[in-house]
Amino acid sequence: MQVQRKMRIAHYGRTKSAKYEGKVIPLDHSSPTTTTIVVKEEKRCNFITSNSDPTYIAYHDEEWGVPVHDDKLLFELLVLTGAQVGSDWTSVLKKRQDFRDVFSGFDPEIVAKFNEKKMTSICTDYGIELSQVRGAVDNANRILEIKKEFGSFDKYLWSFVNNKPIATQYKSCLKMPVKTSKSESISKAMVRRGFRYVGPTVMHSFMQAAGLTNDHLITCPRHLQCLALASQSPSVPPAL
């Protein structure tokens, strides 16, 4: 039991691997009759499979469900979740650096000043739909308005969940909804303010990405790890 406990503690927090390999561990090599235990396998959320792209796996292991309080990163995740419509997370994540380059590190002060020529150039050079580019520019302006009213985009968004992530208890991804009453209420509030690409489904995906909700399955090691991160004081994360 002590060996098993040490292995669990040693494994906890490692983001490059999210499961034990089910190895048989001898308790005492010197004993003539070796007693063995089988380490229980810990599995990632079951939407991660052996065929999942490494970029997507790394995103699940290191970012998904982690509470975000940096305005630029929140803006980035809002744009990425909107871009996911009609696509998939893996494709969007692989273009993530292009999005960062295009939108000046997601600085709303800069993006809000993009003119039509700049937006058209982005569409031509990077293959991003013009409507998405215009949506990001509009949203940058809405974020600036919110910062004047609330002090930060962070304060505005987290007020919807009383500054504490929603911790769900899903055992299977099949039970996970594509939208919730909370994502619907956030969507309605943001639409009233003029935000674009913020439908209930998009906002639910955004909440998962930004850690407003911890939707890791309870069997996934990241569920408890994200709970631990949520209990810490909000701080601005390092640049990615």
From TrEMBL:
Q: Which InterPro entries match?
A: Adenine_glyco, DNA_glycosylase
Keyword annotations from UniProtKB, A to Z? Metal-binding, Zinc
What is the name of the protein in this document?
DNA-3-methyladenine glycosylase I
> Is-annotated flag, keyword Metal-binding?
yes
Where are the annotated coiled coils located? none
Pfam families, A to Z:
Adenine_glyco (PF03352)
- Binding, Zn(2+): 45, 60, 216, 220
